[in-house]
Specification:
Layout: E1 2-4, H1 17-20, H2 27-37, H3 48-53, H4 59-71, E2 75-81, E3 87-94, H5 100-110, H6 153-156, H7 190-199, H8 212-227, H9 232-240, H10 251-262, E4 281-282, E5 291-292, H11 302-317, H12 328-371
Parallel strand pairs: 1-3
Antiparallel strand pairs: 2-3, 4-5
Helix pairs in contact: 2-4, 7-8, 8-10, 11-12
Amino acid sequence: MLRHVIAPPSGWTKAPHTVVRDRRLNSDAKILLLYVQGLPASATDRPLSDLARKLDMKGRPYQRAKRQLVEHGYVHEWRSQSDGGRWRTDQLFTNTPLTSAEARIVRAALEPDDGGRPPEFVAAPPPPSTRYPTVGAPTPRTAGGYEPEEDHSDKTTPHPPPEAEPPQERAEVPAPDPDEAAPAPHPTSQLAKAERLLLSLRHTRRDLLLGVREARALAVEAVKWLEGGLPEGDLRQALLADPPENGVRSAAGFLRHRLIQKCPVTPLPAPPPAPPVRELIVCTGPGEEHVFRPLGDETECVDCRRAAAYASWTVDTDTYDFPADMPWRQRVAAVRKADALRAAHSSQGDAGHDGQMVAAGGGQGADVAHGG
């Protein structure tokens, strides 16, 4: 970068009024101008962007400041191409606005005709060297500075090498059609129905166009719902309902997501109806009058039937052993029933004994009468 400024004394920078009072320049452009003006000659061998980076001026702020400096004559640039094809950009910075003609004059003054460059100008790197294409056949490699030995195989070989056989032509095998790679399902199977349903979606929405191979892959997911009892119409409605606003980018991906995530769940079978509730009836068992809800044709409640069973067991075993978890009310009822059963059995036994005695006495009388 070339520079044409009045070098101020060391330690401070003198800002001209034309720069400070110029309303066409923003603060970044003014700060960059004053910063470059105060640099020593040895520090101006870098482009303007590198110097602005020292001020943390990057991106859009730097582009805006540079554009203002270029528009108002503080920065001038020239692009040229060397003989080697490399492009270079020459920059001229000045703290006084210059026109393009004035800038070319200053540039010519700062670049002498003898080809020299001022100390603050960085010459462009030399162009790349000219490369010539390699010609001729490749030479054999050398190892260790020794030339390779001569090949005498054509003189020492007992039999000449066999001639190369012509390559046999291969029979061209047609490439398999991707749509026909998977075997077609049986026409009457659920898998075939699911495949036909997926292929028919394109007639309703053009963006759901599927190939045969894609439809067969998705039919594996769709057949799960058909086998679960879901009608084909409900499955079609679930796949076509609520289309995305921006359209479908991938028909296979959209339908796979619907089949896995958003298909309606197969309704569960209705539970069997609850049995009717029967009315309360009065228990025919002993004790105070009480009611219960029968399950069948029984006439006694559970407690009375249990007490009757224990009473019968007590009479048969002639014992009063009851389970530990039996309530005392059932125990009392069982004892009463057992006593009633014993009394009934004893009365029946006495009546039977008296009948036998009467029958025996009648026989004796008959004998007496017969004897008399």
